[in-house]
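Reviewer 2 asked us to include a model.

Predict the structure of this chain.
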Amino acid sequence: MDLNVDIKELNEKIEKESGFVEAISLEVGKVIVGQKRLVESMLIGLLTDGHILLEGVPGLAKTLAIKTLASVIDAKFNRVQFTPDLLPADLLGTMIYSQKREDFLVKKGPLFANFILADEINRSPAKVQSALLEAMQERQITIGEETYKLDDPFLVMATQNPIEQEGTYPLPEAQVDRFMLKTVIDYPKINEEQLIMRQNLMGTYETVNAVVSIDQILSAQKAVREVYMDEKIEKYILDLVFATRYPEKYNLESLKPLISFGASPRGSINLGTAAKCYAFIKRRGYVVPEDVRAVVHDVLRHRIGITYEAEAENITSVDIINKIVNEIEVP
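Predicted model (structure tokens):
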């Protein structure tokens, strides 16, 4: 089998399949000013069937972004505001007694949609968060004795305020690990904010059109899996992940006292998938090391536990990832 011919064919196929990415970015860009990383993360989540955790102070257009993405794809969108008194039934749905039929009927909750915005997810206690976990992991919901499959695509985009804020519950590690990416959003640049301010003061919002069908998204999800990844890139991904577990084997002894636990195998899988998707977004049929480096922070930042010693020295998981990325040899 002549690999070069295959890569060429694959490249043409991916270029054709990924044509709509530009259209989505243009439509989302009508409403969301700047925030390029946020838009890229949303696309990666959507095209790899993964979920996204967004962290940032209130007012950075996190809600607006996912709402806009849902309008660009002709899909069903629901928003759930997480509060300390929220119950699992408020998410999943419940059985309601109908006097007319003298029987219990199922009333489905807001999770029955394609896009879920779980707003301020860390304001609810663990019981509610674990109810969301079944939906995210198993793609199904159990109400009473019945289990219902959720529609494809199913994307949970959860937002959380930085933990220092009052009235927040840290998410359990097992749940955080279910999020493919954790993207931290920062304030816009001054010229971007000027544009945001101007648009808001004048009330001039462009209308967003649905430019992609659900079928196109499902077909693109299949194409993302076909993107070619060389064994050298696989080895590079494994080295990055293993360096979070056994830093001493990678000439990074200084990190050992700073890491309480490293990334799980889900980290390797998600890093590979996200790198393939990044190549797809860039309209390429094969993965290069730059694709891995572009997504490594968002895939691993929430999968590395840091020790008290690291906290005392103000070292974050991002600092650890930076050290690892700089040390591991690029193929």
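Residues 35-208 form a domain with the Rossmann fold fold (CATH 3.40.50.300). The chain is about 50% helix and 15% strand. We have added this to the supplementary material.
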